[in-house]
Design a protein that fits this description.
The chain has 10 helices and 12 strands. The protein has 253 residues and is α/β, with parallel strands linked by helices. It folds into 2 domains: 171 residues, HAD superfamily/HAD-like (Rossmann fold, 3-Layer(aba) Sandwich); 68 residues, Hypothetical Protein Ta0175, Chain: A, domain 2 (Alpha-Beta Complex), CATH 3.90.1070. The strands form 2 sheets. It has an 8-stranded mixed β-sheet with strand order 5-4-3-2-1-10-11-12, sandwiched between helices. Strands 6-7-9-8 form a 4-stranded antiparallel β-sheet. Helix 2 packs across helix 10. The longest helix is centred in the first third of the chain and has 13 residues. It starts with 10 loop residues before the first strand and ends in a 9-residue tail after the last helix.
Length: 253
């Protein structure tokens, strides 16, 4: 993947997966993926997702372009990526995340056990606890309970509820990674579509909310006029933003 040289790339695409890099028509996805692969010398790729490392590895083994790096688990994983070794967490970039979380998982799960509208997700995440949420039954008191325990909560797509280390999310972890890599912020395009992408899209990096983004995300971005609101959904919205911001030639236009 050549990830060690990401600072030399003309464009680094830092993209959410579901609804964004994986969104849109099959034709749009193929066009974006082919363009990425055809321009690996000048385009870097970072997945910034709520998905876990196992999912990312399976996804890429199935034909989706391998990223150079991944910010996974809603920002609680920061990893180098390659087809040969999969995802390898970068320990020194995760130190603050691990310290902020400690061994809180058991206490968080116990406190939320049986809470209305929350169903624990089965994946054993390292530094987060995540739930599927039923908005009809959800008790908003869960938010205050999480805060009292010293953690952050995050709701997205009106169906997910994450408990995260205080101050940790996609945006701060992405910025930590690109600073470590020496990538100029002006060369990064952050792309997303749901509320859990807010910290990334509002971080000051060039950014795009792709078409059909979650209304709650668009409402939260009203004060961030520099974020491109794409008309096209998913993969096509990413290409639309690259062209609109003139960040890299789209040779296959």
């Amino acid at each position: 993947m050549g990830g060690a040289h990401l600072a030399d790339r003309q464009l680094v695409l830092a993209t959410d997966l579901d609804g964004t890099f994986l969104g849109g028509s099959e034709e749009d996805r193929a066009r974006l993926y082919d363009w990425v692969e055809d321009n690996r010398d000048t385009v870097g790729l970072i997945f910034v997702t709520g998905r876990d490392p196992e999912f990312i590895g399976t996804l890429c083994a199935g034909g989706v372009p391998w990223p150079d790096y991944a910010v996974g688990d809603v920002g609680t994983t920061i990893a180098a990526v390659s087809p040969e070794t999969g995802l390898e967490p970068i320990a020194h970039l995760e130190e603050e995340i691990a310290a902020a979380w400690g061994d809180a998982g058991g206490a968080v799960r116990a406190a939320r056990d049986g809470q209305p509208g929350l169903t624990l997700q089965p994946t054993a995440f390292r530094y987060r606890v995540s739930y599927n949420m039923d908005p009809e039954c959800f008790d908003p008191a869960a938010k205050a309970m999480v805060e009292e325990m010293g953690h952050d909560w995050l709701m997205s797509d009106n169906r997910f509820f994450d408990v995260l280390p205080r101050g940790v999310s996609k945006g701060p972890s992405l910025r930590r990674l690109i600073a470590h890599l020496g990538v100029a912020e002006s060369r990064v395009l952050a792309a997303g579509d749901t509320r859990n992408d807010l910290s990334m899209l509002a971080s000051g990096l060039p950014a795009v909310a792709v078409g059909r983004s979650e209304p709650a995300l668009l409402a939260a971005l009203k004060e961030h006029g520099a974020v491109h609101r794409a008309k096209a959904p998913g993969a096509a919205g990413i290409l639309e933003a690259i062209a609109a911001r003139d960040m890299h030639p789209l040779e296959n236009d």
